## 1
Amino acid sequence: MANPGQHPDLDGSGMLRGGVFDFVVSGVGDVFVARMHFERYGDHEMNNHVVEYAPDRRIGWEPRPRRRGPDVTEPGAALGRRWICDLLPHGAGATVVTEISDGSRMPEDKRAELDSGPPHASALGASRYAG
C-alpha cells in the first residue's frame, strides 16, 4: 500500500489509472499523485496527502484535486475525504486489508451524497489487495 504505483493493480473500482511519479510513501506529510477516471468527472489527477502512516500496518491519505479535479474550482482545495487502509498480517504471506472511507470532514451537502455509500461501493469488493 505504500507504493501508490501498485494501487491500480489492487483496485476493483477501475477508477485508479496509475501514479504520476515513481514514489513510495515513507511517512506522514508525503504527497503522491494519482491519475484517476470517474465517469462523473472524467480523467483527472489527485494529490494525495498522507495523514496517517505506520509501516506495514496503516496508511491514510486525503485527496485534493490537482488538475481538472472534481467539484472544485481551485486545484489543491481540500475535499474533506480521507481514505485509510488498515493492514493485518494473516497467516503465511497474507494480509487482511480493511479499507475505510471517512467523509466526516466533508461539507454537509457532499456528505449527504454518500449517505447510501460511495458511488463506487459495489466495486470495492472487487479490490485485490495482497500482502
Note: The radius of gyration is 14 Å.
## 2
Amino acid sequence: MATGTEPHPNSGGVRSGTRAAIAAPHLRTDRWWLAPAATTAGLLAFVVYSAWRAFTNADYYAAPYVSPFYSPCLAEKCETMRAGPNWEIFGGWWPLSPAILILIFPLGFRLTCYYYRKAYYRGFWASPPACAVAEPHKKYSGETRFPLILQNLHRYFFYAAILVAGILTYDTVLAFRDEHYAWGHMGLGTLVFLVNIVLIWAYTLSCHSCRHIVGGQLKHFSKHPVRYRAWRLVGKLNARHMLLAWASLVSVALADFYVYLVASGAFDDPRLF
C-alpha cells in the first residue's frame, strides 16, 4: 500500500467510507495555500474599506464626481448634486448612510457571482481550501439550505446590477464637466471614471447568467444570428470572468477613493482640458 493511503476511520464528510482511503490530509507538495490566502486578504481588504466608506457618510461628492458607492443617492439628506443621481425615494427618516441603500445591489450581485462563490468558499470557509485538498467539514449540504440557498437569487441581482451600471455610466458622462458644471472639460477623475465603467460593464456582461439569458435557451443558433453573435461575445468575456471580477473590484474602490481625496481637499483634480 502506497504511503499516505492507509485506511482511515469513518469520520464523516470527505473521510466517509465511500471516499478513497487516504490518511494524509492531501498529497500536494506545492504552496497550494497561497491562492486562498491571497483571496482572503484581497476580499477582506475590500470589505473593510467599503464598510468604512459606506458608514462614514462624508466626502463622497466633489463636483462633478460622485462616488460609485453613493450612486444613486436615495436618501433625503444626500448632498445636492446638480443634474446628478439625487433620487429622494427615502425621506428624512432614514438614519444611516445613504450608501447602504444602494450598495446592497452590487454587493449582492458579487456575493452570488459564481466566481466569487468559489473565491470566498475557499478563502474563508475552506470548502474546499484548494483542489485536491480535503475540506475540514464533516457535513456538506451544498446550496440547498439557508443562507446559501439565497445564491439562487444571482439572476435577479444581475438585473439590478445592469441598472446600477447604467447609472454609473450616467455619472461618467457627467464627469465631462468642470467644478462649475460647464460641459466640455476632462480631468484625471474623468479617466478614472472611464476605466471604472468599462471594467464594471465588462464584469457585469461576463456574468454566467448574462450568457445564459443571451443564448442559453436557444435550440438553433442558425435561426438567431444576432443572439448567437451576442452569445459568442459574452462567452469571450466569460472566459475572463475571474480577471474582470478582480479588476472591477479594484477599479470601483479606486474611483471611490479618488472622489474621497478630492472631496476631502487632500488632492486637487488635475484638468486635462
Note: The CA atoms of residues 205 and 234 lie 6 Å apart.
